[in-house]
Design goal:
Length: 188
């Protein structure tokens, strides 16, 4: 698979990815956790994040174990209480406290943005809560030094904490379908 990100502002690119998702998505997901190439990770996260902007694809992506691939880069060496790990994806729970967090800032930021996009629907928020996304993002955020990444993690944590009371998506995601979401950036 090429390590480039398709321009999803072109309708043709969206349609192509959607039509070939059975082949493309497994390759993209594999690149997220099994590649040393930062360029491949960035491209794969970009393709995945843009595909997630199509909320109708969320359930299909959940069925492909997307949460494992998005949470794995955020898991770090911090240990967690059994209560926090109870209900986590087993492959994630087994590495909590035993692995180094993804060292590439852009990969971490794209993972958190992708998780945030998954909160656009109530079933998505429920899946993230059930998978114990909150403690992983919380721990990652506690050691994150990049302000823009911290902002996105903070918003994600707020959505997850408040989601039991909320039935509507966060305002930032209400119109989420194929539009590009503007995330905070530390670029001036």
């Amino acid at each position: 698979m090429s390590c480039c990100t398709l321009d999803f502002q072109l309708e043709e690119a969206r349609l192509f990815i959607q039509s070939k998702k059975e082949v493309i998505v497994p390759l993209v997901l594999e690149n997220l956790t099994n590649r040393d190439s930062v360029l491949c990770k960035h491209g794969s996260f970009g393709v995945l994040r843009n595909l997630l902007l199509i909320t109708e694809e969320h359930e299909w992506m959940f069925d492909r174990n997307i949460l494992y691939h998005l949470l794995f880069p955020l898991v770090g060496p911090e240990d967690m209480d059994e209560e926090d790990k109870d209900g986590m994806i087993p492959e994630i729970a087994s590495v909590v406290g035993k692995k180094a967090r993804e060292s590439d800032l852009t990969a971490r930021k794209l993972a958190i943005e992708s998780l945030f996009i998954l909160t656009a629907t109530l079933p998505g928020r429920e899946r993230l809560i059930k998978a114990k996304t909150y403690p992983i993002v919380r721990n990652s955020d506690m050691v994150e030094e990049d302000e823009a990444t911290q902002e996105i993690a903070y918003e994600l944590v707020n959505v997850l904490i408040l989601s039991e009371e909320q039935t509507k998506p966060p305002p930032m995601l209400e119109a989420c379908s194929t539009e590009t979401i503007q995330f905070p950036s530390n670029q001036k």
